[in-house]
Amino acid sequence: MNSDRPNTSDFENEPPGEPFEEKLGEHPEEGRLQAYLDRALDPQTRAAVQAHLQDCESCRTSLEALQRVVLDLESLPDLAPGQDLAPLVMERLRREQSPSSWWFWLAAAETAAAALILILSAPRLQNLFHELSLLDLGRSAVEQAAAYTARLTAGWLGWWADLKSLAEIPMSSYTEHILPDFGPGLGMILALGLAAGMLANALLLRGQTHPEKN
Amino acid sequence: MAENHTADHIHRALEGDLNAYGELVKTYQDSVFSTCLRVLGNPQDAEDLTQEAFLRAYHKLEHYDPSRPFGPWIRTLAANLCRNHLQGRKQAAFSLRDERDHSAGRLRREPERSLEVSEREGRIYRALWELPAHHRLAVELRHFQNLTYQEMAEALDLPLNTVRSHLYRGRKKLAQLLEEK
């Protein structure tokens, strides 16, 4: 039998339940006998049930039957599984953490693709950062934020227009015209996407290799 | 002494030492398997759910309160997994699928031979497996994991009075079955 199996003992912090209202000579309700067995009654109710048990053979018999069940159950030994499960559990945990898992390669491919697109759009990003650096430090933060938002919105709209025009442009023109001509918003989106992707990948890796921290 | 080792293994496992977690599995696998077997009555399912319980426990290790014993914590987690497993199969008692499962069927008929336990212990297992699953779970949490009524209600996500009632009915039925056998 496993030595750490707990013994039946008094409950701690158990709600007292409803007050013992049975009149003298009446049998305690069945649930109360169980609570008596589990020592889950407040002292006053426990004393009342105990007094009743001294005079009532029927309740004593019911209680003894419940006590025999407790003894029977507690006599059951722990049984071993058909095989040692430790190597199986560890193997599954190692597989979860293994960099050869499919999610690792998926994350790596995603990061590589994002990095390639970022490199290809580097000239546009450079222009964007150049524009941002021209922000007028003399203006208020609200005005600067408004100007920045306007530029970003224009970039988004330009990017959306570029996307819509993709379907109409022959593939041969794509590399010559489209890539170098992305709107500045796309560069920002790609940069944010790349950063978010890398962060997500890092969290994914961490979640797979360590017990959760939350 | 065993609890000191357990605390040390948990500490090392939290730092990423898988071998330390393997030691924990070795220490507690029998008691967790026994919990699953008592609730499920099927050794193969019990082994699967035992593994699952240790995997879940590994990922929840930071939630474990080291001031309390590890055994009841992981066995309660395992009992809950067994409950979900049974609910997933929409069965209050054992299903027809189980009856077709030869080894599980034989186990429930003759636990003495399948589990190599005494005749008396075999009678207790048989009686346990005749209980409806929710009564069996209440008995498991109270008698084997020593949870209070309140803790049982929280573990099973049931009202306190429902848990008391399940426990009482389970015990009463067990007393009746053990008298008969």
Would you kindly provide a written description of the structure presented here, covering whatever features stand out?
The complex is a heterodimer of chains A (214) and B (181). Chain A is an all-alpha fold and 214 residues long. In chain A, 66% of the residues lie in helices and 0% in strands. Chain A is built from nine helices and no strands. The model of chain A is unreliable at 5-24 (pLDDT under 50). By secondary structure, chain B is an all-alpha fold. Chain B has helices at residues 2-14, 18-40, 43-59, 70-88, 96-100, 102-109, 111-115, 119-130, 133-144, 149-156, 160-180. In chain B, helix 2 packs across helix 9 (133-144) and helix 9 (133-144) crosses helix 11. Chains A and B meet through helix 1, helix 3 and helix 4 of A and helix 1, helix 2, helix 3, helix 4 and helix 8 of B.
Précis, in short:
With 214 residues, chain A is an all-alpha fold.
Name the chain pair with the biggest interface and residue counts per chain: A-B, 53 and 63 residues
Number of helices of chain B: 11
Task: Compute the CA-based radius of gyration of chain B.
Answer: 17 Å
Structural class of chain A: mainly alpha
**Mean model confidence by pLDDT of chain A:** 70
- Give me the strand/helix succession of chain A: HHHHHHHHH
Structural class of chain B: mainly alpha
Order of helices and strands of chain B: HHHHHHHHHHH
Rg over CA atoms of chain A: 36 Å
Overall body shape of chain A: elongated
Portion of residues in beta strands of chain B equals under 5%
Outline the fold blueprint.
The complex is a heterodimer of chains A (214) and B (181).
Chain A: H1 30-37, H2 43-55, H3 57-74, H4 86-97, H5 102-120, H6 122-133, H7 141-166, H8 171-178, H9 184-209
Helix pairs in contact in A: 5-9, 6-9, 7-9
Chain B: H1 2-14, H2 18-40, H3 43-59, H4 70-88, H5 96-100, H6 102-109, H7 111-115, H8 119-130, H9 133-144, H10 149-156, H11 160-180
Helix pairs in contact in B: 1-2, 2-3, 2-4, 2-9, 3-4, 4-9, 8-11, 9-11, 10-11
